[in-house]
Each structure stands twice: as structure tokens, then as C-alpha cells.
Specification:
The chain is of the alpha+beta class and 210 residues long. 34% of the residues lie in helices and 20% in strands. Helix 4 (113-121) packs across helix 7 (199-209). The longest helix is centred in the middle third of the chain and has 16 residues, at 87-102.
Length: 210
């Protein structure tokens, strides 16, 4: 056996040396830019008396070995990269970690850059309405036809609601605080948690990760 490739005085086998080298190897680190990218929309991260600084939120995501973590506005939006795997499983993993670390439930909804671009491109209300503001709600699963109809039936002259895919589009003809439809009522009709963002925030995020 040629020992020139091994430490001086080594008398073991090549396989033994490889094993020793592996035991002393530097742990693998994820490299940003080489994995699927996601945007996480977090529900109720900074409401109900709770306040989480974005630096802390970033660290909580990094504790899960997620790469390229970046927060966007203090409303609970996090951009990151993760290895291969189910987005649904990743949602649950992040949500469980946040709940354990913060002490309260934080529903988590993930979207890829392509999915987010589709959300922004979709026109729930073809006719523009002067003075109105559009909000988009994110949820975990698509709704049944019956649920979509039930949500649409909640629309008024002031509030217009439309469910498409895993999002709800909510156009308000004025201030959000003046709406007769509440987020709690919307969630009850949907039958699942949702987190709502102003369309301008979603557009900025889509542009940033696109």
C-alpha cells in the first residue's frame, strides 16, 4: 500500500483513514442560491400584544438550517431557501418551531416565487373601483366550491370577496377599519386560518423574489 497520501506513520487501511477523515470533517452548510426559494406569510406574529423583532424572527428561521433568510416589513413576511422536500411539511415544521419558541401559535403559509407571481397576476375584480384597496389573504389549502360561494355571498357594496386557489381577494371601498366584514368572519367562512396582506406588499415581495 502506498502511504504517501496519508499522515506520516499511518499504518492503517485506506478505508480506515477515510472513516477518520469523515469523523473530523466540517459539518455541511447550506449555500444560498442553490435551493428552492420560498416566501413565508406568518399569521398573527405581531398582534394581540405580541411583538417579535425581525432580527429575532430571522434567527428563528436560521435555527431550522434555512438559508438566505431575509425578513420583509414587520408584518410577518420571510424570504428563505430550503432543501428539497414537501412545502406542506416545511410549513408545519416552521409553524411548530415558532410556536415552541414564542409560546403561541403562528400559522405559516409558503409560496414559491412562481406561485406568488401568479397570485399578483390574477385579476379577481376585472373592473377597477376608484378609491378602493385590495387585500390578499393566504391560506394552507384550496376551498371547496361550496365554501367559495359562501365567501362570495358575504360581499356587499363596500366589501367584495373572491376566493381563487389558496388565496382570498378582498376589495374594500374605503378604509379597512370601516369594513363590516371582519377577518374573523372570513376565517370562519373559509374554515381555516388565513393571513391578510395589502396588495402592494404582495407585489413588492413578488418583484423582490421574481
Amino acid at each position: 500500500m502506498d502511504h504517501r497520501a496519508y499522515p506520516r506513520g499511518w499504518r492503517g487501511s485506506r478505508h480506515a483513514w477515510c472513516g477518520a477523515g469523515m469523523r473530523n470533517a466540517v459539518p455541511h452548510r447550506t449555500i444560498p442560491g442553490l435551493m428552492p426559494r420560498y416566501v413565508a406569510f406568518l399569521r398573527a406574529i405581531n398582534v394581540g400584544g405580541h411583538t417579535v423583532e425581525m432580527a429575532k424572527l430571522k434567527k428563528l428561521f436560521e435555527q431550522l438550517a434555512l438559508a438566505g433568510v431575509e425578513t420583509f416589513i414587520a408584518s410577518g413576511n420571510v424570504i428563505f431557501e430550503a432543501g428539497n422536500g414537501s412545502a406542506t411539511a416545511l410549513e408545519k415544521r416552521i409553524g411548530a418551531h415558532l410556536e415552541k419558541s414564542l409560546g403561541y401559535e403562528v400559522a405559516t403559509f409558503l409560496r414559491t416565487p412562481a406561485e406568488l407571481a401568479g397570485v399578483v397576476a390574477y385579476r379577481a375584480f376585472p373592473k377597477p373601483a376608484a378609491g378602493s384597496t385590495l387585500y390578499i389573504g393566504f391560506q394552507a389549502a384550496e376551498c371547496s366550491v361550496a365554501v367559495r360561494k359562501q365567501v362570495a355571498a358575504m360581499s356587499t357594496d363596500f366589501d367584495h370577496l373572491h376566493v381563487h386557489g389558496r388565496e382570498i381577494y378582498w376589495r374594500i371601498a374605503g378604509r379597512f377599519s370601516d369594513s363590516k366584514v371582519t377577518g374573523a368572519k372570513v376565517e370562519k367562512a373559509l374554515g381555516q386560518p388565513t393571513t391578510i396582506r395589502k396588495v402592494t406588499t404582495v407585489e413588492k415581495l413578488a418583484k423582490k423574489v421574481g
